Structures are given as structure tokens and as C-alpha cells.
């Protein structure tokens, strides 16, 4: 009971920031700074560039994962490959059931500059 009250008090003290999500805190902070139009445009550009860099890194990670998987399969026997692929498929199904944040991202990534 005490724990529940403490958590409730902390959430109330934090206000809406507790429900803002992973990026909401920085947006709320920036919105409270009375930014000029030029600053807002600069921040928009910075965020867009950072987003594009994240997508590039995610593509590189995907490529590395695929190459690693191909190298692993090259070492295995046919029976081991079947077992590996089946286990990997099960793992992917479990992952999709959990719907982690990465899975919520658009499947088709935008073209970056």
C-alpha cells in the first residue's frame, strides 16, 4: 500500500512528463524555452538529420546481422541448418508477439540524404 501511494505521489509530482514517452520530455523542455522561428527550424533540421543517421545505422546493423547469419549457416550441416532456422523463426515470432519499439517503426525506411 505504501509503495502504491509513493508511486502515485511521484507520478503526480512529475506531472504530464511521466506520460510523455521516450522523446516527449525533450520536446516538452524545448517547447518551454520560448524559441524563435529560426531556432525551431534549426532544431527540426537537427532532429531530421539525427533520424536519418539512426536509419542508416539500423540498415548497417541489419546488413551485419544478415552477413553473420549467412556465415553461421555456412558452418552448419543440413540438419543443423533446419534446426537453426526453425529456432530462429520461433524467436522471431515471439519477438513480433511482444511488439518491441523497433517493430513499431515503419517497415519501409525513408530515403535519406
Explain how this protein is built:
By secondary structure, the protein is mainly α. The chain is 75% helix and 0% strand. It has helices spanning 2-14, 24-31, 37-75, 78-98, 101-104. 0% of the residues are buried. Mean pLDDT is 77; it is low at 15-20. Residues 89-113 are annotated as: Disordered. Keywords: Coiled coil, Signal. Residues 1-20 form the signal peptide. InterPro entries: LTXXQ. Residues 33-67 form a coiled coil.
Show the helix and strand layout.
Layout: H1 2-14, H2 24-31, H3 37-75, H4 78-98, H5 101-104
Task: Sum up the overall morphology in one term.
Answer: elongated
How big is the Rg? 22 Å
Helix-strand sequence: HHHHH
Helix residue percentage: over 70%
Could you tell me how far the N terminus lies from the C terminus, measured between alpha carbons in angstroms? 53 Å
The profile of the biggest β sheet is:
none
Portion in beta strands = under 5%
Q: Whole-number average pLDDT?
A: 77
Structural class call reads mainly alpha
> Number of DSSP strands?
0
Tally of individual helices? 5
Region (Disordered): 89-113
Coiled coil: 33-67
Keywords: Coiled coil, Signal
Protein name: Spy/CpxP family protein refolding chaperone
